[in-house]
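Suppose you are handed only these lines of text.
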Amino acid sequence: MAKSYPEFKVYRSHGCGETHQTYADAAKCIWPQSSLTEGEGSYALVASCSGTEVSLYDSPESAKAAKQVLDADTCGDGCHRRHEIIQLDLKLPRP
Ligand SMILES: [Zn+2]
Ligand SMILES: [Zn+2]
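From them, the structure of the protein bound to zinc ion can be written out as follows.
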């Protein structure tokens, strides 16, 4: 398992009881209101300024880099920097 990054929130279970095949699947279940879910990986950059957009990254470095870009710019109209990285600690059935 990847080492933990204490600055990230970690979602271990979200109470749906289902087994998701991919992190993208899980992200759609966790954030059903999300208008956009892209990428694949266990690090989710969630922008919830106006609606919810979720992008997934397979490394903490790329998630952090993406957040820096988003923080420096905006995620769209009405952006007030509600951007955070959530680490999805899920047991996926695939190897
Ligand atoms: Zn779920
Ligand atoms: Zn924003």
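What can we learn from it? The radius of gyration is 13 Å. Residues 14, 16, 18, 20, 26, 29 surround zinc ion (ligand 1) (CB under 6 Å).
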